[in-house]
């Protein structure tokens, strides 16, 4: 396995696009099963020989439902806006997803890809909605295979009957 940050340094744009998509999906898969990785940095995810992205740094994980995902409140004035200290209360389990955009991905091109594919991860609403689904006991679909490899897609492509034979079967 190669750490994702190192993989992306030498990846082609197509490989990087696929890896960034897998990275976002890995985060969403963890959230769907009530796991918050804590440290979402690229170095804590790895690319397997089959080019799947997996999370492997377990020292900061917690239950997603134990965290309070918040939006950063609007500053009331310039002093608050440019203050070195937060101008609002921050609890021990408070998380501000809009801040993820600052430190998850440094490269502008890769950041743009991530925003395109998984920009919802930077919004507290995604995280709160996922928490609500978990708390209601709803099952959140997590697809471990790429869409092109799922049986339903594969079977239609490989096992589709020619039009003339399809009419006879129906």
Question: What does it look like?
Answer:
- With about 170 residues, the protein is mostly helical.
- It has a single domain (about 1-140), classed as Transferase(Phosphotransferase), domain 1, CATH 1.10.510.
- The protein has eight helices and seven strands.
- The strands form three sheets. Strands 1-3-4 form a three-stranded antiparallel β-sheet.
- Strand 6, helix 3 (about 80) and strand 7 form a beta-alpha-beta unit.
- Helix 2 (about 15-30) packs across helix 5 (about 110-120).
- It is globular, with a radius of gyration of 20 Å.
In total, the number of domains comes to 1
What helical percentage do the residues reach?
40-55%
Indicate the overall shape: globular
At CATH level 3, the topology is: Transferase(Phosphotransferase), domain 1
Query: How many DSSP helices?
Result: 8
Beta content = 5-15%
**pLDDT below 50 for ≥5 consecutive residues: which ranges?**
165-170
Structural class: mainly alpha
Task: Give the arrangement of secondary structure elements.
Blueprint: E1 2-3, H1 4-10, H2 13-32, E2 35-36, E3 45-47, E4 53-55, E5 62-63, E6 68-69, H3 78-81, E7 94-95, H4 100-103, H5 108-118, H6 124-135, H7 151-159, H8 163-169
Parallel strand pairs: 6-7
Antiparallel strand pairs: 1-3, 2-5, 3-4
Helix pairs in contact: 2-5
Concise structural overview:
This protein has 170 residues and is mainly α.
Comma- or semicolon-separated keywords:
3-stranded antiparallel beta sheet, single chain, Transferase(Phosphotransferase), domain 1, mainly alpha, 8 helices, 170 residues, 9% strand
